[in-house]
Fold this protein.
Amino acid sequence: LRRPRPAYNPSSISDPDYVRIFDTTLRDGEQSPGATFTSNEKLEIARMLAKLGVDIIEAGFPIASPDDFEAVRQIANVVGNEVFEDGYVPVICGLSRANEKDIQIAWDAVKGAKLPRVHTFIATSPIHMKDKLKKTPDEVVEIAVKAVTFARSLGCVDVEFSPEDAGRSDPEFLYRILGEVIKVGATTLNIPDTTGWNMPWEFGDLIRDLRENVEGAENVVFSTHCQNDLGLSTANSLSGALNGARQLECTINGIGERAGNASLEEICMSLALKGDTHFSGGPGTGRLYTSLNPVHITPTSKMVSEYTGMACQPHKAIVGANAFQHESGIHQDGMIKNKSTYEIMSPESIGLMRGDSQSGVGLVLGKHSGRNAVGTRLRELGYELDDAKFNAVFNRFKELAEKRKGGMEDDDLEALVSDQSGMVNKLWEVTGLQVTTGMSGMPTATVKMMGPDGVERYVAQTGTGPVDAVYKAIDAITGVRINLESYNMNSVTEGIEALASTRVVISPASKTGLDKICKERKFSGLGSDSDIVTSSARAYTAALNKLLTYTMRRQSKGSDSGIGNAVSVSSAAPMVVGVDA
């Protein structure tokens, strides 16, 4: 749930502790090389940002192209008019340079929103004014004033002004130009560290000095926009908040020009965890907060990654693949005893539902793992080993983990148990297999299997292909209805006689009873053979045996034999006894 937010006023915030979140993923984020969104993708991301609860969505740069204009206009007309139950609707903002044509186009794009904003900018650092703009400081001030004046003349009551490269600008010049744009109607003053040049203490001092020295500063909201060239964008943004900035500009996953922007998820969780205690000294009580709902961080992050094709680095804070995973034995031991020993937030708080996977605490079993982590995972898999057997498994685990890149999977652990302690989870075994297939005719498979009662049974099935027919036959014999989640095959060696290695992942079908026992757990199986169909059958059977063994260990009672629709080799009478009968 979102915390209540103050009623929106463009130039002020009634609660001085409230921090507005301005998301520019669709504008600055799209300027990342290779990160181009379609109009529909922009709309979907905007809707996710609204679910997340950002105060302002900078939907794009409307003058850039007709497609950009239409995308911004669509977001304004759709997302900018979708009012949530708590009365929240995001401000929709369009960026423009400081000239009338840009501003007119930006206003035309966003004016359909309930809360439209135009964001205009001009550079103010000596190097930008001299070498890029070729303008004098007086000319830059005049351009800025005319731009804000024109935006207000269109009927836009929410105008944001940015002095580009403020982090390298002369403070005295900033006092002057910002004071002038306030006089003609600017409501938000955004202070960009455009090149990521500032240290956090420098940037914080800049925000404080501007608030103290700009004429009319009490009548506007100060904002930050920090680039990440030195890896300090989030730190600089938070330093700005400490010194009175009450709007922070950021992007999902920190994407943006060059090294990117301040990361929304980092700012969000920093304020969620520390905002109440570590921001005294600025305006208000120093107990800063936002109205973001962080459970939408993970799905939004994944959507942005998918649409941009830019995966997050594994160790990226909050949303990286390793952010809630632990391999060190000391860390794993602590996590098993109390998750707070090594996690300052839960993955569930950001929408990452870890569930029972990785022992529910993000354990990655590798060469650094200790006895507690390995033993805990084995018990979760249903193995209760005495000390001698566990020592044998653990020692072998350490030997193999030293040679492996990446973690050891449950399959590997179970294989070690089988190898080292003589426990073999083999309920069903394929003892015979024959398929017919071709361009004409129906693919057919006859499969013979040895069951847990020591009796061989066979069945014939058709399918869309030979492997599908085999899998249907196995299902019919065992009487277990399952879902095939994934199927992968690789050649172990080269050449026509290469060994095929197949890996499948299965889960119990819904409404079978097994799904309640296994919950969301999935089971993988490996199989190898020079014949790809046989390899596929062995992998499928291995996964099925794991599912059944796992289920049997967790059932306090069980009357099923695990034998389905099959004909005994030694009898012509069919036996119909199924797990899901």
